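Progress report, Aim 2. The chain analyzed during this reporting quarter is listed below.
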Amino acid sequence: MYSLCVLTQLGKVAAENIMEETRCKFWLPKKNRFCSNARLNDSSLFCGNHNRRTDGQWIPCPIDPSHSVLKENLDGHVKRCPLLKQVRSLSQQPFYHKGINAGKEDDEEELGAVTSTAVEDNVTSEMKRNAVHSMTVPEFCNLIKKIESVHALICNGICDSFKIPEACGMWIKREIDRKLPFQEKHVTQQASILGNLEEFGVLKNSVGVNQDDEKATPAVVEFGAGRGYLTQMLADCYGTKRVFLVERKSYKLKADRSLRQKESLTIERLRIDIEDLDLSAVESLRNVPYLAIGKHLCGPATDLALRCCLMEQYTQDNVEHCSSNNYIRGLSIATCCHHHCQWKHYTSKNIACLT
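Predicted structure tokens for the chain:
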């Protein structure tokens, strides 16, 4: 018996040594170990992620720009890109319209009467960023002072509004399913978004409200939904019956599983970029009033969501895609990453030019 244990242990050691020889030799300083992936081949010391790139020209994949491929391999790659099937499926959806909410770099129709003070032709957001990077320190400090002055002039009536509604008590007191993730920072932020909607009277506590009544909680569209835990709180505390989760990425540990266990709740996840979403073409949302919510809509995503919801923001070119079959009852968005905002997507160009 002892000899068998020794042989088993020796076998494990031998197997580990073999695996060690075939592993990538790239050192990971933060993890204090070598990469655990397998090497590309016997002649290479590294895996595909850490192998030194060839001298060929690398270009972004036209299907998924988050990765790049060799120009000489592009034709073959686009036929087997992992996102190809998803893109084809999305393009067949009636609510997909490429760039419908994107806006334009210099939209004279949006600028209206202030076209005389509009930005010069062919001045892109990238050119403006380069102009900022080329500034001297005194010039940059002077620009900051001007921005702060304009902000104080326009936004002096805006104040903080932190609300924790009574309806969200079950989450605040942690009287929820222990399987659901609880982080106090996120819970208080989510509760405040819903609390401000309740304060404005567009969100009603489901207690004592007839769901057939016009005051009952309407459908909810969450932009940039991520895992959907803002909608989870809304469904738990306000009893909404229909939710639409708009998110372009795929996430693990989503709230969808918990939400689908609610028999009275209908959930629909739209995996699409807000820039390409024609909300009026979502069949199950037609003739239904809805609330629009979003937590941490990064950079231009806030402007894209506003264009998506507010039909009057559409240009004449897109008027055929607009519909009065659905209408927004309220909107609450928490913005973030303002340094990612772009002039092309900005929804208030006329105000910006006036200032």
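Residues 274 and 304 are 6 Å apart (CA to CA). Residues 56-92 form one domain. These observations will guide the mutagenesis work planned for the next reporting period.
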